[in-house]
Design brief:
The protein is built from 23 helices and 27 strands. It is of the alpha/beta class and 733 residues long. α8 packs parallel to α9, α13 crosses α14 and α19 packs across α23. It is globular.
Length: 733
């Protein structure tokens, strides 16, 4: 985010004319309050939807019929800087008040949780990251930005960049998985897509990087829980995706709920002032997560809300989401000398700068033709992109005997309550979609011309109808069982101690398998699941995640071979619950897992992941050979040949890993450094080359210093993190 001299001058002019009340108003984000018989704040309604306590239909009915307080008088008085919402007509009304009726005419910045699409919902992040397709990630974000502006939203609370290695944490669904380098690439692509299309005033939004920082390492995978880690781990694993996004120009950052080594991120001066605004020279503003300033009192680090507000502002938190603490308490804190005018002015300057950069002063309103256009339906190009993203994100995990792809002449028994749902396909934190745009798996199979009989039988919740299971087994030549989680079972506030298939779904699969007919499991889920039993007993497994509005058509295309699956796992899958956290790039141990009992392992499950990071099958096969490593002055040049050894075209993701064999700190057993998608016809081969800067072979120590050490390195290349070719080279810096 860069401002011109004229834009900076505008910000300073506004700042010089603002009263203290107006300045504190800019630091205040409001949400529409539901008044009357349903007195629940908007953020709590959103929480109820994401937790499954309130259906999308019930939520929409409330929003359509309830009386709401949009804080018009506070906007008119300059006491509101930001609003939440996704109603373009109301956005125009509120902007008219802010621009035409407030003293200084400062527009609102309207924000909303557009995590993986607004109307055009594309795959959840953990799925889309598994496409390993940076261009796709950028294009879906660009689509989300355009739709957001069409709904009056100039600020997306995305991307979520928390590296997450424990699948018990529900919010793994919202982020790019377990690997830092993949998360860096995801971060850069999303910021480019959200912010870099400056072809018109309604083509870009302000990105918001969340959650800063370490939230994905919450203890035990329990949401909102404490985080403790060494500085080397913080700098090497959790900070790099945020730094990459800041380097791409991200406009805003959201502080995390959790404490980091005893200091809540909401008021953490080291992460906000020293790192983000100091070392990284971040020019935008930082917003709290919902009600997070108030929660610092519950943390026990502030005596009351007034103290929490003063501590947060001093630490570098610029905008208060939802509590009114800044608006109501900071004037007294200023008078008492607990905060300074300079700190207030810095926060206001940053917020005004983002508003000016967004073009809100010149273009605060949504044009009526745009509103009417989206009311009529989605652009066809958006539907096509959602389907492309879905097709590239699903992962083939097992395909015994080449059962897939299916011939359309085969009679399919489609089993499972999730299979007919056209609402569960969107996944967690999807808030702007419409039912008419969603394609269920049942509908997708029908669209593809399948000979299919549908049997709900059971799902993640509720009873199992064994009589219907018998009918399903008798009907089809092959059984496709759609199993997994509802959207509410992952996402925020959806941590699970057990990550096997919920409910009686494993029992359902056992009954189906006992029929003797081939059973294909299609998974709908928001996290890696423990699939040890399923992997052993089922014929084929397709990891379809929550793929968005185009899910049904994409799954059908994969089952029938109209596409060749090319997705790869962005997170490792365990055999069983007790393996969590499971991740490929764990530190070396003095007793690595082996046959001896006295090594680092569990006695009752295999030592490695069931399906490792980067894993994914194809309807063809790929072979690797000829790995070479050449040292240059400032880089390593690596080449490896990949050949399509199967009988049909396919796309492989060639993955490059390294290991620092001996270092002054214990290093991971393997680290992803680069990847390349390669599409090859049957029998064809290609030599893929990588240029790995030597600087990428360094690491952060516990003093927060990035060091490069001479020594032996292993260079690995292959189709996943486990199955690679390896060469060794001694590198000198």
């Amino acid at each position: 985010m860069k401002l011109t001299d004229a834009q900076r001058a505008k910000v300073e002019d506004l700042l010089s004319r603002m009263t203290l009340e107006e300045k504190l108003g800019q630091l205040n984000q409001e949400s529409p309050s539901i008044v009357g018989g349903f007195d629940v704040p908007f953020p709590e309604l959103i929480e109820m939807v994401t937790e499954g306590r309130l259906s999308q239909e019930e939520f929409q009915k409330i929003m359509d019929t309830a009386q709401r307080d949009y804080h018009e008088e506070d906007i008119r008085a300059g006491r509101v800087g930001s609003m939440m919402g996704n109603d373009p007509v109301k956005a125009n009304e509120l902007q008219h008040i802010a621009v035409e009726e407030s003293r200084l005419g400062i527009p609102l910045i309207i924000g909303f949780d557009v995590i993986h699409g607004l109307r055009s919902v594309y795959p959840i992040a953990i799925a889309e990251a598994g496409s390993f397709d940076d261009d796709l990630m950028e294009r879906t974000a660009r689509m989300a930005a355009r739709e957001s502006r069409a709904y009056g939203i100039g600020w997306n609370f995305a991307p979520m960049l928390d590296v997450a290695r424990d699948a018990r944490w529900g919010r793994v669904s919202e982020g790019p998985g377990e690997d830092t380098r993949l998360a860096e690439r995801f971060a850069r692509a999303k910021v480019r897509g959200l912010q870099n299309d400056r072809s018109g005033p309604d083509s870009y939004v302000a990105a918001c990087l969340k959650h800063f920082v370490g939230y994905g390492a919450c203890e035990g995978g329990r949401d909102y829980n404490t985080v403790s880690m060494a500085p080397s781990q913080l700098h090497s694993v959790y900070l790099p995706p945020f730094r990459a996004a800041v380097e791409e120009g991200a406009a805003t950052v959201m502080a995390a709920f959790n404490d980091l080594n005893g200091v809540p991120c909401t008021l953490n001066p080291y992460t906000l002032r020293t790192l983000l605004k100091g070392d990284w020279a971040f020019p935008g503003f930082v917003v709290s997560d919902a009600n997070a300033i108030r929660e610092c009192v519950v943390h026990g680090i502030a005596a009351d809300e007034a103290e929490a507000g003063a501590m947060a502002l001093r630490a570098g938190l610029d905008m208060d989401m939802g509590t009114h603490i800044y608006r109501d308490e900071l004037a007294a804190a200023l008078s008492a000398g607990r905060i300074s005018q300079t700190e207030i002015d810095d926060a206001v300057r940053r917020i005004l700068s983002v508003k000016v950069w967004l073009g809100l002063f010149a273009h605060p309103y949504v044009e009526e033709p745009v509103i009417r256009s989206y009311a009529a339906g989605l652009p066809e190009a958006h539907r096509a992109l959602c389907r492309e993203a879905a097709e590239k994100s699903l992962v083939l995990l097992k395909n015994a005997g080449g059962l897939l792809p299916l011939q359309k002449e085969r009679r399919i028994s489609l089993v499972g309550a999730l299979a007919a749902s056209d609402t569960e396909v969107v996944g967690a934190w999807a808030l702007g979609w419409e039912k008419r745009d969603c394609v269920s798996i049942l509908q997708g199979l029908k669209n593809a011309g399948a000979d299919v009989g549908y049997y709900p039988c059971g799902g993640p919740e509720g009873a199992l109808d064994t009589a219907e299971v018998e009918r399903a087994c008798a009907d089809g030549d092959v059984i496709v069982a759609v199993v997994g989680e509802t959207a509410a079972m992952s996402g925020e506030a959806s941590s699970r101690a057990h990550i096997t298939l919920p409910g009686r779904q494993r029992e359902l699969l056992a009954l189906l398998s006992a029929s003797g007919k081939p059973v294909i499991a299609v998974l709908m889920n928001g996290r890696p699941l423990a699939l040890g039993w399923e992997s052993e007993h089922l014929d084929a497994i397709v990891e379809a995640w929550h793929l968005g509005i185009g899910m049904g058509d994409a799954v059908a295309a994969a089952l029938f071979g109209e596409i060749n699956p090319s997705g790869r796992l962005s997170s490792s899958f365990p055999w069983d619950d007790g393996q969590e956290p499971t991740y490929y790039n764990h530190p070396s141990t003095g007793r690595p897992a082996g046959k001896s009992k006295f090594t680092s392992k569990y006695l009752d499950v295999p030592a490695e992941a069931l399906y490792p990071f980067g894993y994914g099958l194809s309807y063809t096969a790929f072979a690797y050979d000829g790995l070479t490593v050449t040292e240059r002055e400032d880089a390593l040049e690596i080449a490896v040949t990949v050949r399509n050894s199967g009988e049909r075209p396919g796309t492989e993701t060639v993955q490059l890993y390294t290991r620092d064999v001996t270092a002054s700190l214990v290093r991971p057993v393997k680290e992803l450094k680069d990847y390349r998608r390669v599409t090859l016809r049957a029998g064809a081969s290609e030599t893929v080359t990588f240029r790995l800067p030597k600087a990428d072979l360094g690491f952060w120590n516990n003093e927060g210093v990035y060091v490069r050490e001479d020594g032996l390195f292993q260079i690995c290349a292959g189709g996943n993190s486990r199955d690679t070719l390896t060469e060794e080279i001694t590198v000198r810096f």
